[in-house]
Amino acid sequence: MITLKGAEVSVKIKEQVQEILAGHDGPAPKLAIVRVGENPDDMSYERGAMKKMEAFGLRVQSYVFPADMEDGAFKEAFKAINEDEDVNGILLLRPLPKQICEKDIENMIDPRKDLDGISPANIAKVFAGDTEGFAPCTAEAVIEVLKANEIPISGKKVTIVGRSMVVGKPLSMLMLKENATVTICHTRTADLPCECRQAEILVAAAGRAKMLNGDYVGQDAIVIDVGINVDENGKLCGDVDFDTITDKASMATPVPGGVGAVTTAVLAKHLARTIR
Ligand code: NDP
């Protein structure tokens, strides 16, 4: 089984970013990372995103607000970032604390700065197959992993486990755009192992540590693991029980070191695209 490494895909995306920026005068585009509170997962994602922007020659600034900030005060602060001409793109770390209405922020964010595809305008574009907007970075990262490794998608049977608005649903639309035949699974799927075994490309985005073992993988399938979980020993792991699929899958992404590393590279590519 071949391990599909995220770092190698990230290098290819860096080249694309450099091509987009070639000949661009003036300061590099700037990402604003907006965080409310001190959630360790958010802070870890923020550190990774900051490192990636800097490595790709892009500007980044994080805006941190207290966890108990009032809805009105946050909206005022967010509006200022949204309207700041020096800010080209925004990454909002979610979920927000419950006193802040997340829906309102999704409606407020300028779609041209909405790099992670949370605004209704960008979601509509993803569902319409219009590539001019911004798709959620993780969903697009799955497509990037396949393309960077020259894995054909057109005509393939793709099964996605998970139907969230962040990963499963937008990814199903991106796969359709690539002419895959898509099956979406969730907690009410009647026979999940059977659905998964049909897949030529299996994408795990359920958020359940090591849930998909070798019984879920068809012979020679390609397995993309989006999950980021912590196992019983406190170690980072995916949704796939990696050691049990090595005789079945032809290729698979590891966790860590797989899709996660590509997600921030896609974010950087989206930021670079704001200059056009
Ligand atoms: P959600 O919890 O929002 O969605 C999980 C989805 O998986 C739901 O649709 C749920 O079904 C389905 N699901 C959960 N358990 C099962 C099960 N036992 N059988 C079948 N389906 C199941 O998670 P997200 O989409 O936000 O994230 C998914 C995973 O991806 C997480 O581990 C998360 O940490 C990771 N992630 C990784 C990123 C990266 O950069 N690599 C970025 C974002 C997320 P139902 O709808 O029926 O409840």
UniProtKB/TrEMBL annotation:
<comment type="function">
    <text>Catalyzes the oxidation of 5,10-methylenetetrahydrofolate to 5,10-methenyltetrahydrofolate and then the hydrolysis of 5,10-methenyltetrahydrofolate to 10-formyltetrahydrofolate.</text>
</comment>
<dbReference type="GO" id="GO:0006164">
    <property type="term" value="P:purine nucleotide biosynthetic process"/>
</dbReference>
<feature type="domain" description="Tetrahydrofolate dehydrogenase/cyclohydrolase NAD(P)-binding">
    <location>
        <begin position="136"/>
        <end position="273"/>
    </location>
</feature>
<comment type="similarity">
    <text>Belongs to the tetrahydrofolate dehydrogenase/cyclohydrolase family.</text>
</comment>
<comment type="subunit">
    <text>Homodimer.</text>
</comment>
<keyword id="KW-0378">Hydrolase</keyword>
<dbReference type="GO" id="GO:0004488">
    <property type="term" value="F:methylenetetrahydrofolate dehydrogenase (NADP+) activity"/>
</dbReference>
<comment type="pathway">
    <text>One-carbon metabolism; tetrahydrofolate interconversion.</text>
</comment>
<keyword id="KW-0554">One-carbon metabolism</keyword>
<dbReference type="GO" id="GO:0009086">
    <property type="term" value="P:methionine biosynthetic process"/>
</dbReference>
<dbReference type="GO" id="GO:0005829">
    <property type="term" value="C:cytosol"/>
</dbReference>
<feature type="binding site">
    <location>
        <begin position="162"/>
        <end position="164"/>
    </location>
    <ligand>
        <name>NADP(+)</name>
    </ligand>
</feature>
<keyword id="KW-0028">Amino-acid biosynthesis</keyword>
<feature type="binding site">
    <location>
        <position position="228"/>
    </location>
    <ligand>
        <name>NADP(+)</name>
    </ligand>
</feature>
<keyword id="KW-0658">Purine biosynthesis</keyword>
<feature type="domain" description="Tetrahydrofolate dehydrogenase/cyclohydrolase catalytic">
    <location>
        <begin position="4"/>
        <end position="116"/>
    </location>
</feature>
<dbReference type="InterPro" id="IPR046346">
    <property type="entry name" value="Aminoacid_DH-like_N_sf"/>
</dbReference>
<dbReference type="InterPro" id="IPR000672">
    <property type="entry name" value="THF_DH/CycHdrlase"/>
</dbReference>
<keyword id="KW-0560">Oxidoreductase</keyword>
<dbReference type="InterPro" id="IPR036291">
    <property type="entry name" value="NAD(P)-bd_dom_sf"/>
</dbReference>
<keyword id="KW-0521">NADP</keyword>
<dbReference type="GO" id="GO:0035999">
    <property type="term" value="P:tetrahydrofolate interconversion"/>
</dbReference>
<dbReference type="Pfam" id="PF02882">
    <property type="entry name" value="THF_DHG_CYH_C"/>
</dbReference>
<keyword id="KW-0368">Histidine biosynthesis</keyword>
<dbReference type="InterPro" id="IPR020631">
    <property type="entry name" value="THF_DH/CycHdrlase_NAD-bd_dom"/>
</dbReference>
<keyword id="KW-0486">Methionine biosynthesis</keyword>
<dbReference type="Pfam" id="PF00763">
    <property type="entry name" value="THF_DHG_CYH"/>
</dbReference>
<keyword id="KW-0511">Multifunctional enzyme</keyword>
<dbReference type="InterPro" id="IPR020630">
    <property type="entry name" value="THF_DH/CycHdrlase_cat_dom"/>
</dbReference>
<dbReference type="GO" id="GO:0000105">
    <property type="term" value="P:L-histidine biosynthetic process"/>
</dbReference>
<protein>
    <recommendedName>
        <fullName>Bifunctional protein FolD</fullName>
        <ecNumber>1.5.1.5</ecNumber>
        <ecNumber>3.5.4.9</ecNumber>
    </recommendedName>
</protein>
<dbReference type="GO" id="GO:0004477">
    <property type="term" value="F:methenyltetrahydrofolate cyclohydrolase activity"/>
</dbReference>
